[in-house]
Design a protein that fits this description.
The chain is α/β, with parallel strands linked by helices. The protein has helices spanning about 15-30, 35-45, 60-65, 85-95, 110-125, 135-140, 140-150, 165-175, 195-200, 205-215, 230-240, 265-270, 310-315, 325-340, 345-360, 380-390; strands spanning about 5, 10, 55, 70-75, 100-105, 125-130, 150-155, 180-185, 225, 250-255, 270-275, 280-285, 320-325, 365-370. The chain is built from 16 helices and 14 strands.
Length: about 400
Amino acid sequence: MMKRFGKFGGQFVPETLMNALIGLEREFMKAKEDESFLKEYAYYVKEYSGRPTPLYYAENLTKQLGGGKIYLKREDLNHTGAHKINNVIGQVLLARRMGKKRIIAETGAGQHGVATATICAMFGLKCEIYMGEEDVQRQSLNVFKMKLLGAKVNTVTSGTKTLKDATNEAIRDWVSNVGDTFYVIGSVVGPHPYPTMVRDFQRIIGDEVKEQIIEKEGRLPDYLIACVGGGSNAMGLFYPFAQEVDVKIYGVEAGGLGVDTEQHAATISKGSIGVIHGMMTYLLQDEYGQIMPVYSISAGLDYPGIGPEHAYYHSIGRVKYEVINDNEAIEGFQYLTKVEGIIPALESAHAIAYLMKLAPNTKKDDLIVVNLSGRGDKDIDTILNVIGSEKNEE
């Protein structure tokens, strides 16, 4: 298996983790060739998670925005409410295959944490989740769900108290307990083989889209759009189309309060190449190579790095990475809710906001697919704080 995507990726980890990573890669490669493992994975994503998720023709969006025909890939309809469970099912099955009894994970928006806690509950595995204190506060509903599911939630109070710091603590835990513990990373980030492994478990999104759009329209889409933090939902959609050169692909980064401020998470647009969490990629860092604080209204997107395969796609020009700020994302959140009756996660609202810019400039016979990576129940408190007073005055 390739350890790098061009110059990106690699294994920048303490020596104590190398054997664990080598063993993980070996077991993953064997599992990918094992019909019984693949059959078991297919069973759980279908019967437990609810796949395939629909590719929904958004007729109202299409009429209002003009331009091309818009489809939404409804990952929000997965069990637990987001695409994260696709990957968690695969990794936890791998953990069981390797005889690991204890599962740990990091989480930002809580969606990966809830998915991990859910699958651990189903399989009766001990589960601990690391989550930054700020995210614990703004995603309190998901924290409650994780605890209900039997997971221990470790609140991280170091650094910016968000996803980066939660990941740091999860890695420290793994270094200390690598013998009996499996670290379920939630995005296409981290040291090899995680970016490839997570991508392979998430590519089911794009594989389904290919089949569904051909069934509905008889051809491939002209545009793909997905939000990007670490980048797992986007990679899951993009990867099966990477060699389809006529398909234009857009990743949408979190612009926070604006890329002209220091409060954003636009890693590719404003970052530079460096090392974070065991991989070489684009990240937000200062002149001394120290990781800079990041910010987004969306807890799932405020990560200072990006998956190395995204960095590679950017470097070769295969994917265009655009920026949507908080206000635009809130507008996208409200717009989709009112127009289609679908409340999106704030992460997905970034993709919707970019769709609102792109779609009017496309042709009527163009086909556009947006990955709706999660549902917005978890973000209601955040939205209430931002627009609640405004609504109360109406």
